[in-house]
Amino acid sequence: RVVALDRDGRPTSSEELAQRLESWRTEWSHPVVFVVGSDLGLSDQVLTRADWRMSTRYRFAVIRTRLSSAP
C-alpha cells in the first residue's frame, strides 16, 4: 500500500489512521509506504499510484517530530 502525504489529501483522525493501518495489516502482508513530497508537492504519477491521499496539514508535524526524535 502507498499513502501519499498530500497537502490536498483527506483530513484524517488518529483513530481513522489506526483503523486503516490495522485493516491493511490483516489483509496485506507487505509494508505500507508513506510518501512525502517536497514543498512543490508530489508528482501526478505518485498521486495516481497512491492507495490513499492523506492530508499533511496537521499530520506532518507529528510525523516530523517522531522522526526527529528517533534514536
Q: Please, could you describe this protein's structure?
A:
The chain is of the alpha/beta class. 42% of the residues lie in helices and 18% in strands. It is globular and about 35 Å long.
Q: Judging from the principal axes of the Cα atoms, what is the shape?
A: globular
Span of the ends, CA to CA: 26 Å
- What order do the SSEs take from the amino end to the carboxyl end, as H and E? EHEHEH
Q: Which structural class best describes the helix and strand composition?
A: alpha/beta
| Low-confidence residue ranges | none
Largest sheet: 3 strands, parallel
State Rg. 12 Å
Search tags:
single chain, 71 residues, alpha/beta, 3-stranded parallel sheet, 3 strands, 18% strand
